């Protein structure tokens, strides 16, 4: 009796995996891509036209907030909450803001079509880790939403993008 139950269990879930795994992986790719793509769109005013508010977001909300977050990376003068005019720090933050805007468009697009999916997932995990450790080091941000982004990215990194991907079409994934 137990052998039959075991065999039925294995058969049922092998069939479910065969039919659902690739749909689930497609859904995971779209879910992770949607979050970062939406964030990336907010950083642009048009095709290759950066939103200037994005620089303020990085300069003041992320790295020099009015209410200092314990453990967050603070890059401005903590006494006056300002940057030294023309400093290298400001230049680096502005470049980081631009790169984040580019990556938050390019990496999700790669996930949407399933091209270089594992690389895109790994890069988004890295972005999430930076956001979590340097910008919002609170436990509440980790629990929701950062842990979900990392979990989805890790699943895609470990399992791959599934059959409904350009990675499969171009032979970038093992069969």
Helix and strand topology:
Layout: H1 2-41, E1 44-46, E2 49-50, H2 52-62, H3 88-113, H4 117-135, H5 139-159, H6 166-169
Helix pairs in contact: 1-3, 1-5, 2-3, 3-4, 4-5
Summarize the structure.
This protein is mainly α and 175 residues long. The protein has 6 helices and 2 strands.
Features:
mainly alpha, 175 residues, 2 strands
What does this structure look like?
This protein is an all-alpha fold and 175 residues long. It has one domain (22-169). 69% of the residues lie in helices and 3% in strands. The protein has a two-stranded antiparallel ribbon. α4 packs antiparallel against α5. It is elongated, with a radius of gyration of 21 Å. The model has no long low-confidence stretch (mean pLDDT 92).
Counting DSSP E segments of at least 2 residues, the number of strands comes to 2
Strand content: under 5%
- Please mark out the parts with pLDDT under 50 across 5 or more consecutive residues, or reply none: none
- Give me the number of helical elements: 6
The value of Rg in angstroms is 21 Å
Helix-strand topology string: HEEHHHHH
What is the typical, i.e. mean, pLDDT?
Answer: 92
For the biggest sheet, the summary is:
2 strands, antiparallel
Distance between the termini: 35 Å
User: What number of structural domains do the residues give?
Assistant: 1
Instruction: Please list the strands of the largest sheet in the order they lie side by side.
Output: 1-2
Q: Helices and strands: which structural class? A: mainly alpha
